[in-house]
Design brief:
It is built from 8 helices and 7 strands. A 5-stranded antiparallel beta sheet has the order 6-5-4-1-7. The protein has a two-stranded antiparallel sheet with strand order 2-3. The longest helix is centred in the N-terminal third of the chain and has 33 residues. The chain starts with a helix and ends with a strand.
Length: about 250
């Protein structure tokens, strides 16, 4: 029993020391950014991101990289921040600003408009908010059904039944949005080109035919990463090819 208590105390002490260390590093990073020492801010925020990659830390690191004109890593960290918190408009605005400074201007393929609206809708709220909406809607639906069974007048029964149907649909929609956001956070199938330029090949080999060139900051979708050194990728306009894995970092 004493050994168990001692282990808990040591674990609590270690957690407290780690939290204090993170807080101190955060303070130093914020101070470096405030005095325009962006190189130091990049190192300090980078250290924080390795230990505790929250959306705020990733966002701050993206801003610091932007200030030193490292657009590729700025885009990368804004993308990572957006993955963690897709409902944050500030992250989206700064990501678009960083993207505007990239060399490649890729025009996305046309997408069915309902898919575009649905993707935008899933980002209205955070994962926690969507989950809360789903749970509350389900509870209120059950309450509406209870009132439906005990209601005396036909008018009240119609109102409560209609409310139950609407709340059920809202609960289902919120669950779908929450699931989509969860999958988006946990799936790493996108990357950002971090080398100055990479030639996309027709086959996973240096002697493959040259298809097109991508520059730093461009986003790629991973199609096949089973090979050791090469990865098949696609870009937003539908083009597909092979690039070395060292040419990009996963979001």
């Amino acid at each position: 029993m004493k050994r168990y208590i001692l282990s808990l105390l040591l674990a609590f002490a270690f957690a407290s020391m780690q939290a204090a260390s993170l807080s101190e590093t955060k303070t130093l990073a914020d101070s470096a950014y405030a005095r325009a020492d962006y190189e130091a801010a990049v190192k300090l925020y980078g250290k924080l991101a390795e230990q505790n990659p929250t959306s705020d830390v990733c966002y701050n690191l993206g801003c610091a990289y932007y200030r030193i004109d490292d657009i590729a890593h700025s885009v990368l960290w804004f993308e990572r921040a957006l993955k963690l918190n897709p409902s944050d408009k500030d992250i989206f605005v700064n990501l678009e600003m960083a993207r505007s400074k990239t060399i490649d201007k890729i025009v996305p393929q046309h997408e069915f408009i309902l898919f575009t609206y649905f993707r935008a809708m899933t980002n209205w709220f955070s994962l926690r908010t969507w989950t809360t909406i789903a749970l509350l809607s389900f509870i209120l639906m059950l309450a509406s059904l209870l009132f439906f069974w005990v209601a005396g007048s036909m008018t009240m029964r119609k109102v409560t039944f209609s409310a139950a149907i609407i709340l059920l649909l809202l609960s289902v929609l919120a669950n779908v949005c929450a699931t989509k956001q969860k999958d988006f956070k946990q799936t790493h199938t996108s990357g950002i080109i971090t080398t100055p330029a990479v030639t996309v090949k027709s086959t996973p080999a240096d002697n493959g035919n040259d298809l097109f060139v991508l520059h730093e900051g461009s986003k790629v979708e991973i199609r096949d990463s089973s090979l050791k050194e090469w990865c098949e990728v696609s870009i937003a306009d539908g083009k597909v090819g092979w690039i070395p894995k060292k040419a990009f970092d996963l979001i």
